[in-house]
Amino acid sequence: MLLAVLAVLALTAASAFADWQWWIIERKIRADFPRVHPISTSDLATWLADPRRARPLLLDVRSASEFSVSHIEGAQRVEPGSAVTNAKLPEVGKSTPIVTYCSVGYRSSAFAEKLRAAGFTKVQNLDGSLFRWANENRPLVNARGELTDKAHPYNSFWGRLLHSEHRAKL
After folding, report:
1. Overall domain count for the chain
2. Sheet holding 37-39, edge to edge
3. What is the distance between the alpha carbons of residues 42 and 138, in angstroms, rounded to a whole number?
């Protein structure tokens, strides 16, 4: 009985710690990129599922190795740290809806800010980015276009925010 209670406490503490980490990350992103508008994973999922709405341009701001493990279907990869002019974006108007994401949201917020500075007016960053999307069991595809439930953990520190069942083994 005592072991069961300790196990429940450990799981609850781990969950609370992860929630605390996400809270800090989100506050840091909002403080560093106050002009970048977030979009929740549920709002993006609803948008992508609505056949009456034009899909946003999804920009995955992660490395090629991260992208190949998984990404949101239809996303285009942008090299982290690249300038908007070097990003090889498709020809889109400045009012095209764009949603950026990365692993947790920092790299994609930085790129979203660059897009806004370049005159793009409908830019949003996915709140919690791909890790939250994966943790909520939302659809991902790999480099071959096959459905997967795994995501690249970025590294051992940040990968702890990704539920173990969704963490790709590298």
Report:
1. 1
2. 37-39, 123-126, 98-101, 57-60, 76-77
3. 9
